[in-house]
């Protein structure tokens, strides 16, 4: 089934006809003959959408819509109200009461089914965003939005010199608090300073659906991808109206322009756009907080490990090498002990920025832990990786770090480098171990230097496990003690 729809109508024939049409479109249909029964089914079966007649035995369709909007639900349930006659006043009253759309009997099946698909798509998208937002809020990764709400931006796509366009712009400005902007159809896809909250695309009288071609382009454009789209069709353009909804329009005026109705629909779409923007921002910020180091802004280990797996798979498929650099600040403990932890943080932030400034956009830079940083370089052979690591050491040693108190401090790096080669079975984590062994050797070698993992020979002494270090047993213990206390 493509969704569960509740039909509310006191006339059995109306319910049966509508149920047959919806069932043929593979919807799961449930029915109620009055408002109270509908509310009971809403609590019990949680339908995805409600279609209600405007007149019910115990309440009006508008009253039922208001009761539905009061129900405690994580996602709002769309409501469509069916009217017996096309009365503009009743239509506006129903929309103002919270209905998502108003259809008039006899219902045009093409438009109705397109409208239901559009409403259910929007509901599913909002439900997914809300679910992710709720999860991140439970994890403490999202915050409540600010109470301040700036005016929205509504873009009207119409030739601005036409008198009708001027009247439309002025009429909307008197009805809504949002900013109105008029653009030519040729400029509708051009990126402006600010992305619009809503784009209104209207068919001119006598047109044959020319404005339809703009809708998929607006939905695909990076600038207007998340903008709400409202399409205004002429009364004889029912096929175009249905096509507009399937092409990405969020809302529709199917009987030509009505300023009061457009103002109500604009208000709803601006509010919905703001809600979705907030949910997307919370999700984006929450994801960033989960995978990024808060001090340096670099990716953390949680992000780096799966990224390395994808990098290794791609390198194998393309038969190209990749490099892993493990960099560690020398004598970092002394920085904290002698200058304070604020100075240590300044050193870490400075190193992170220098890594970002001196590596390629394709290179992954992550804070691996403490004062250790991991760099993953795709399409990098041994020569390129060694040259890059040596350049990073020079940059760090030749440019002192400015501490919070204004003092200058020279800090150096030790770097271990391991190369992943096509055809070899070493996993990314095994390569990191090899890079760590090379880093350990660089510390023993005197620091402020680079050691390649393929130059580090394991040493085995009697009674010892092989060590991937270029150290004797005695030197190994001394270096380990220095590393624990000074690096």
From TrEMBL:
Residues 472-487 have a biased composition (Basic and acidic residues). GO terms for cellular component: plasma membrane. Residues 4-120 form the Response regulatory domain. It catalyses: 2 GTP = 3',3'-c-di-GMP + 2 diphosphate. It comes from the Bacteria. Pfam families: GGDEF (PF00990), Response_reg (PF00072). Its EC number is 2.7.7.65. SMART domains: GGDEF (SM00267), REC (SM00448). PANTHER family: DIGUANYLATE CYCLASE DGCM-RELATED, REGULATORY COMPONENTS OF SENSORY TRANSDUCTION SYSTEM. This is diguanylate cyclase. It comes from Mameliella alba.
């Amino acid at each position: 089934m493509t969704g569960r729809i509740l039909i509310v109508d006191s006339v059995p024939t109306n319910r049966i006809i509508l149920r047959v049409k919806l069932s043929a479109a593979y919807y799961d249909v449930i029915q109620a003959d009055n408002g109270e029964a509908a509310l009971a089914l809403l609590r019990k079966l949680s339908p995805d959408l409600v279609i209600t007649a405007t007149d019910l035995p115990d309440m009006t369709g508008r009253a039922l819509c208001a009761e539905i909007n009061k129900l405690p639900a994580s996602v709002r349930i769309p409501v469509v109200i069916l009217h017996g006659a096309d009365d503009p006043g009743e239509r506006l009253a129903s929309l103002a009461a919270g209905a998502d759309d108003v259809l008039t009997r006899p219902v045009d099946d093409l438009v109705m089914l397109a409208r239901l698909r559009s409403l259910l798509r929007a509901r599913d998208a909002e439900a997914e965003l809300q679910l992710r937002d709720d999860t991140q809020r439970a994890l403490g990764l999202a915050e409540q939005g600010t109470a301040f709400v700036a005016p929205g931006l509504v873009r009207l796509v119409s030739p601005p010199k036409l008198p009708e366009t001027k009247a439309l712009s002025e009429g909307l400005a008197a009805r809504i608090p949002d900013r109105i902007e008029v653009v030519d159809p040729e400029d509708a896809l051009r990126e402006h300073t600010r992305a619009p909250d809503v784009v209104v695309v209207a068919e001119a009288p006598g047109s044959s659906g020319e404005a339809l071609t703009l809708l998929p382009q607006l939905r695909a454009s990076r600038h207007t991808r998340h903008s709400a789209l409202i399409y205004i069709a002429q009364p004889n353009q029912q096929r175009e109206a249905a096509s507009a909804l399937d092409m990405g329009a969020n809302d529709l005026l199917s009987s030509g322009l009505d300023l009061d109705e457009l103002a109500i629909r604009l208000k709803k779409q601006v509010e919905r756009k703001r809600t979705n923007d907030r949910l997307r921002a919370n999700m984006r910020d929450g994801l960033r907080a989960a995978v990024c180091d808060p001090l340096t802004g670099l990716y953390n280990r949680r992000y780096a490990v799966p990224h390395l797996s994808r990098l290794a798979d791609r390198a194998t498929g393309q038969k190209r090498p990749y490099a892993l650099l493990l960099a560690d600040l020398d004598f970092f403990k002394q920085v904290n002990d002698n200058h304070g932890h604020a100075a240590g943080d300044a050193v870490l932030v400075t190193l992170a920025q220098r890594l970002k400034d001196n590596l390629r956009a394709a290179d992954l830079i992550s804070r691996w832990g403490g004062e250790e940083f991991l760099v993953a370089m795709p399409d990098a052979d041994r020569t390129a990786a060694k040259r890059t690591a040596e350049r990073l050491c020079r940059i760090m040693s030749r440019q002192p770090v400015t501490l919070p108190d204004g003092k200058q401090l020279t800090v150096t790096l030790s770097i271990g480098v391991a190369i992943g080669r096509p055809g070899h079975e070493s996993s990314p984590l095994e390569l990191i171990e090899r890079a760590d062994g090379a880093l350990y050797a660089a510390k023993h070698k005197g620091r402020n230097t680079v050691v390649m993992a393929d130059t580090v020979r394991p040493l085995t002494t009697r009674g010892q496990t092989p060590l991937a270090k270029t150290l004797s047993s005695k030197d190994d213990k001394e270096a380990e003690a220095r590393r624990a206390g000074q690096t």
